[in-house]
Amino acid sequence: MNNSFSVRGPVLVTGADGFIGSHLVEALVKGGWQVKAFVQYNSLNSWGWLDSLPKEIIDSLEVFSGDIRDPNGVRVAVKGCTHILHLAALIAIPYSYHSPDAYVDTNVKGTLNILHAARDFNIEKMVHTSTSEVYGTAKYVPIDENHPLCGQSPYSASKIAADQLAYSFYASFGVPVTIIRPFNTYGPRQSARAVIPAIITQIASGATEIKLGALSPTRDFSYIDDTVRGFIASLEAKNIIGEIINLGSNFEITIGETANMIAGIMGVKIKIISDELRFRPQNSEVDRLWANNSRARELLKWSPEYFGEEGFRSGLVKTIDWLSDPTNLGRYKSGIYNI
Asked: Is the distance from CB of 183 to CB of 248 less than 8 angstroms?
């Protein structure tokens, strides 16, 4: 872990209870940052994936339970912090077909709440999390930050709106916003709605007929450690206010090839079954994503450690090992399609 950070926070991490957020919180604490972890309030007092972290990490955190959609709670969370890493969002694309209003409330209004608070409390830097889905199907590859935006799902449309709001607060009010745009992060703790854990958990549970949707779309998968390093680099980097920066491995692979690679690593011969429930509507499917990460290399001095086919395979091995552990596998309902 890089211990050369010149600024140590306190930093507010929204969405800290989620996949990327929990890994980010863990890395920040290990790097010496003072962290306030914003988690979704619930009656069980669950802190999501933070509950799985070592005790020494948990004891170093201030955990704030609230709702990103509530402006008063957001202001309370932001007060006293110098930096914000804003990751809180609804992200499942199929669920956005089902409940688009929830995506506007969480992703758009929630981001607006954070931006207002960042402005009012004179935050030193706010890193807003975007997604490669805002590009839609690639019009050219690799995709750089100047690629046109295309909301092919209510989820991606809500993230485009959130990105534009974030940029507008920089342009209009001088809020020190940087937009980080990860491409298809994977690794331990990823939710079952994503394709890599969906494949691994089915195989690890004994299935040889694997249910998937479209196999031909390509993705640029980034291992969680690389994504986390990119976020932390964005806190440390100078002269990136107002910038939009891709985080991707610059390696393109189809979903079908990914499934077969996973099966090969796990030593299982599989048959892929087309599950109609898992297909996106034709005009909503993003057929191709492939990241140009040159801006991240230049501005963040960041480069992926898990790159190319061998890097992808290495990340998959770590993900498979984690998901195959009975304790972790037991958290997933592999026989149920999670939208």
From this structure: yes
Return the pLDDT at 8.
80
Torsion, Cα 112 115 119 123, to 10 degrees, reads: 160
Strand partners, 182: 247
Is residue 165 within 8 Å of residue 157, measured between CB atoms?
Answer: no
- Run of H or E including 295: helix 294-299
Q: How many Å from the N-terminal Cα to the C-terminal Cα in the chain? A: 35
E strands along the chain, which residues?
A: 11-14, 35-40, 61-66, 83-86, 125-129, 177-182, 185-186, 209-212, 218-219, 222-223, 244-247, 253-254, 271-274
**Is 81 in contact with 36 (CB distance < 8 Å)?**
yes
Strand partners, 84: 12, 126
Query: What tokens does 54 get?
Result: 């070592």
Q: What is the three-class DSSP state of 274? A: strand
Structure tokens at 166: 């974030």
pTM, to two decimals: 0.96
Residue 98's Cα: distance from chain center in Å? 21
Q: Give pLDDT tens digits for 255-284.
A: 999 999 999 999 999 999 999 989 999 999
Distances (CA, A) of 239 to 125, 235, 242: 11, 11, 9
CA distance linking residue 124 with residue 82, whole number of Å: 5
